[in-house]
Design a protein that fits this description.
alpha+beta; 27% strand; GNAT_dom; acyltransferase activity, transferring groups other than amino-acyl groups; transferase
Amino acid sequence: MIVPCNSSDIKTIHDIINDGASAYKGIIPADRWHEPYMTMNELQTQIGEGVEFWCCKTGEIIEGVMGIQFKDDVTLIRHAYVRTAKRNSGIGGKLLTHLRSLTETRILIGTWTDAKWAIAFYEKHGFRLVTEQEKNSLLRRYWNIPERQVETSVVLTSDPINTRQ
């Protein structure tokens, strides 16, 4: 079941993000990795900046989370993570499909260049990589990230503008 996360879920969201992000350790540039991958303060800041988290629940247990952020003329998919033990079980696809149904604007997703599995997941769901020049422009316009992260990231986009399925 896909439901909006609420304030009582914040610790679980934090735990799932950091568990899921463990897949990046040793893959992304060492200077971009830190533990925890996302601090509680960073999570609270993201929520304060308009990232709305959705949960995939099995009964009362949250198995995966994905954020959506409506920003200017686009929608950003943010912080998409599934518990390590539940990877490759369709949870990410269910979350992404649901979040796509919430917007009619172009969707942008940023991820690490070396996270080949993440890129393949988004491509499987109809997203395509943008050019290097467009990536740099989009990351600087819609995200607030360090320049080093811009250098080591990619952006995927949905086309056409109306992404309802």
